[in-house]
Amino acid sequence: YYEWLKDIGEKKSWSCKPPEDPLTNYFADDYCVGQVYIELYRKYKDNKMIVPLKAHLDQILKDPATGSLEFEGTDKYRSIQRWSWCDALFMGPTVWAKMASITGEKKYLDFMYQEYKATTDYLFDKDDFLFYRDSRYFKSKEANGAKVFWGRGNGWVFAGLPIIIRELPLKYKHKDYFIKIYKQMAGRILALQSADGFWHASLLDPASYPNPEMSATAFFDYGLAWGINNGYLEKEKYLPAVVKGWKSMVTSVWPDGKVGFIQPIGADPKSVTRDMTEVYGVGGFLLAGTEITRLIDKGIL
Question: Is the pLDDT of residue 182 over 70?
Fold first, then answer.
């Protein structure tokens, strides 16, 4: 697997910026691949794997986006926007935290915290402990009158927090900030789990989207299992939910290995069918599987 990933890095010249799209310096989705480059660097200690990524982040630091966090449409958010959509809290800050960890340079953590807090102050609902996908949904309502909180959007945020937390220095002054958000979300996510173990495309209006949504379920199950494994969540309270979540997830796997019930690319809840699959949902499934395996190896499960 490492060799396969390394070959991809070589073919891309370890770049994270699509050459055909020169306006995306700030677009977090484009440099999310830096997570892979940094993990490969940790194994092979080859500087060429991180030099382009570091230059990319340094350019952002030199000329940071300073605009509003109001979501301004696809073209704008791809070119100059900050982390104005909640998915970006998985794509972007994870890379900044990893870069800080391998270089020891505080500037990457300072930027990551500053921008993460700005986005959270803007998109995090302090009553529901969930994230709006972006500013377009602040006043939107589901068919039952509830706020619109998208399952996978919150899944991205929740799955990103373990990656960030484990990269932070032990005595980092803002570490508790991230742990607090993680625990607040964990409690809310636990309460929203279906009796069958899965979560829905709409977290507060499951009746309108009754089918399982496996990308959200996978990210939530991963995040909860990680919390048990690392002592952030109580085993007695959260382990039954993790087990139910995993049992739900395996029912979505076809005989040929395809993972179904994964909502296609989007920004809000949509209906899902067993035929639907996407690579990020498979990635979430594998993340959850790694943490389930660790629970077994530790004798917790």
Answer: yes
pLDDT of residue 22: 55
Please answer whether residues 228 and 242 qualify as being in contact, where contact means their C-beta atoms are separated by less than 8 angstroms: yes
- Residues contacting residue 292 through CB under 8 Å, at least 6 positions apart: 221, 225, 242, 246, 301
User: For the segment 86-111, what is each residue's pLDDT rounded down to a tens digit?
Assistant: 999 999 999 999 999 999 999 999 99
| Claim: this prediction has a pTM higher than 0.90 | yes
Catalytic residues: 87
Q: List, in sequence order, every residue forming a beta bridge with 106; answer none if it has no partner.
A: none
For residues 201 and 213, the answer to whether their CB atoms sit within 8 Å is yes
Length of the chain: 301
State the Cα–Cα distance between residues 211 and 207, nearest whole angstrom: 9
Look up tokens 């935290």; give the residue: 97
Contact predicate 151/200, CB 8 Å: yes
DSSP H helix total and E strand total for the chain: 13, 2
Mean pLDDT of the chain: 95
